Structure formats: structure tokens, C-alpha cells
């Protein structure tokens, strides 16, 4: 639906080549927590959803159903997800609630000491009580070889490493991918950076349909992706298009943009322009959550989601 001309290249810094997005529709969202630091003046948010989705805390988790027909039923299975991202060597300072699945969406370490600290991170995760533990890489994990994910899995012996892979946990389909549009050679923390003009076809088009939960490190375009230093949205438009028009997961978890931590709800009926020819009568809701823990001198909290199916 949107062509390569979506991207405009900024070369104001030597070796930078930062991709800027132009002319792409924005996602209209209901912000459930932590209202983002930016909102375009010409975008009017609809009223908040009638149903209470929770606040993502241990005592008041987000409550998400596989489909709306299940709401109110009593014989459902429940999978409790405990989710974080961008801990940057500070995971030991975070309270991690009990649950069924521990999820980390990348940047557990800092790039300068990645090779040493990723093993410390693995040891810490080994002490957690969760039966299932999932990790995808982030741009700071420069010690990982993208060509040999099996070697990364050996290092991360206390968790399941997902690099463009699907895992089934008690009938819940979870897919993880670490890639994001690359920013250029001046950025030292650039692991899993990919050509922005090719990433949709080469990476995102392989995300399977009918999954329950999608994990990426970077955000989709216009979904909690604002960079305050550049006043730009840096999320991936190709990822947004695939997620809302084809993949349609119930939950999409990511991190990377620390300033935009929080949860937002996407609804098809608010996004006819974005979905275009893929719009249909059946309503589609997606819970988007930016899980970035590291907030400068402070740390956020783990996000807890109860998934019913």
C-alpha cells in the first residue's frame, strides 16, 4: 500500500544517513497509560474504550482476550505474561512479579560491555521462577552474531532466544524478531539494524498470521516511537503496515524508545485510512506496549498482562 518513497534520507551528519518517514498515515490510538510526550495537533483521539483493560500492574494487570466472544466466559485458560525491555544492566533493581512467562524485548545490556554483561544477565534470569522465559535482542547486543542465532542461544542458556522464530506456549503463539531500521555507521549500538527500504519485504513479511503475541525491539511507526531530541517519529512504517493489515496480533510488545514507555490500544474502526483496502467490518484490537524500563535516573516497572484464550 505504501511505497519506498515513504522514506526521506537525512544526511546532515557524515555517515549518518538517518531515514525519515514522510507521507505515511499515523495510527490513531487510545492511550491506556503514560500519555506520550508528543501528539500531533491535527490528530483527534476518540474517547477512551468503555471496557476497563487494566493498568498493567501486578495488582491490576492488563486483561486481553484472544477474541471478544470470550469476554465473560468462565472456562478460559489464562497465561500471565511479565514483560520488560531496555533494562541496560539494571534488571537486578527491578521487581519482577511472578507469572507464567517472562518476556524481555531487548537491550538487557549496554553495547560497550555487552559480551561480559549478557552472561550476568543470563545468570540472573536463571534465578526467576517463571516456567517460560523469552528474550529477543536489541541494538545494544553487538556481541551477538545474527548469522548464528544458535550461538546466542548457547549463551542465553536460561531462556529461549527468538530471532525470527515462533514459539507455542500452552497453545499461545508468540513470535519474536530483533530487527529495526538501521540508523547509519556513526551509531555504535547498531546491532540488528537493517536497510529501512528492504526491511518490510525481507523481515516483516515473514511474520506469520494468526499469532497471539508479537515481540520486536523497535516500535511500529507512530506507535510510541517519538524521539524528543530530533522531534521525529523513528518507528518502522513497514512494521506498522504488516501488523495492522495482515498479522493482526492481539498484543505487540516492544521497547527501544525509552521516553515513550506505556500502553496504547489500536482499533480498526478508528484506522480506516491506515488500513485502506485491508479494512473490513470485523473490528480488530491490538494492545501495543512500549516496555522500556530505563528512564534515565529512574526505572519503570514490569508490565503484567493476563491473556485469556
From TrEMBL:
Q: Which residues form the Calcineurin-like phosphoesterase domain?
A: 80-260
Would you say which domain of life the source belongs to?
Answer: Eukaryota
GO MF term list: hydrolase activity
Q: Name one Pfam family in it.
A: Metallophos
Q: Coiled-coil stretches, from where to where?
A: none
Q: Which InterPro entries does the annotation name?
A: Calcineurin-like_PHP (IPR004843), Metallo-depent_PP-like (IPR029052), UPF0046_metallophosphoest (IPR051693)
Indicate the family of this protein: Belongs to the UPF0046 family.
Q: Would you tell me the protein name for this molecule? A: Calcineurin-like phosphoesterase domain-containing protein
The organism is Adineta ricciae
Amino acid at each position: 500500500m505504501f511505497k519506498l518513497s515513504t522514506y526521506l534520507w537525512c544526511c546532515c551528519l557524515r555517515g549518518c544517513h538517518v531515514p525519515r518517514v514522510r507521507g505515511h498515515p499515523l495510527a490513531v490510538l487510545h492511550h491506556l497509560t503514560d500519555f506520550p510526550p508528543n501528539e500531533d495537533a491535527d490528530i483527534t483521539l476518540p474517547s477512551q474504550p468503555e471496557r476497563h483493560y487494566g493498568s498493567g500492574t501486578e495488582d491490576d494487570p492488563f486483561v486481553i482476550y484472544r477474541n471478544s466472544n470470550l469476554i465473560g466466559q468462565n472456562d478460559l485458560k489464562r497465561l500471565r505474561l511479565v514483560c520488560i525491555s531496555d533494562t541496560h544492566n539494571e534488571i537486578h533493581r527491578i521487581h519482577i512479579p511472578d507469572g507464567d512467562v517472562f518476556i524481555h524485548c531487548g537491550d538487557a545490556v549496554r553495547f560497550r560491555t555487552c559480551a561480559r554483561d549478557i552472561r550476568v544477565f543470563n545468570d540472573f534470569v536463571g534465578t526467576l521462577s517463571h516456567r517460560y522465559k523469552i528474550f529477543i535482542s536489541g541494538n545494544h547486543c553487538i556481541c551477538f552474531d545474527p548469522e548464528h542465532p544458535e550461538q546466542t542461544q548457547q549463551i542465553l542458556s536460561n531462556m529461549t532466544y527468538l530471532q525470527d522464530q515462533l514459539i507455542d506456549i500452552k497453545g499461545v503463539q508468540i513470535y519474536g524478531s530483533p530487527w529495526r531500521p538501521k540508523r547509519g555507521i556513526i551509531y555504535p549500538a547498531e546491532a540488528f539494524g537493517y536497510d529501512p527500504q528492504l526491511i518490510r519485504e525481507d523481515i516483516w513479511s515473514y511474520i506469520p498470521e494468526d499469532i497471539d503475541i508479537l515481540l520486536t525491539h523497535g516500535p511500529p511507526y507512530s506507535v510510541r516511537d517519538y524521539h524528543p531530541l530530533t522531534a521525529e517519529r523513528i518507528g518502522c512504517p513497514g512494521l506498522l503496515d504488516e501488523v495492522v493489515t495482515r498479522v493482526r496480533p492481539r498484543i505487540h510488545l516492544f521497547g527501544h524508545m525509552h521516553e515513550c514507555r506505556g500502553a496504547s490500544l489500536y482499533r480498526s474502526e478508528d484506522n480506516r485510512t491506515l488500513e485502506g483496502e485491508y479494512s473490513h467490518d470485523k473490528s480488530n484490537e491490538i494492545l501495543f506496549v512500549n516496555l522500556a524500563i530505563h528512564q534515565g535516573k529512574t526505572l519503570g516497572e514490569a508490565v503484567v498482562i493476563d491473556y485469556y484464550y
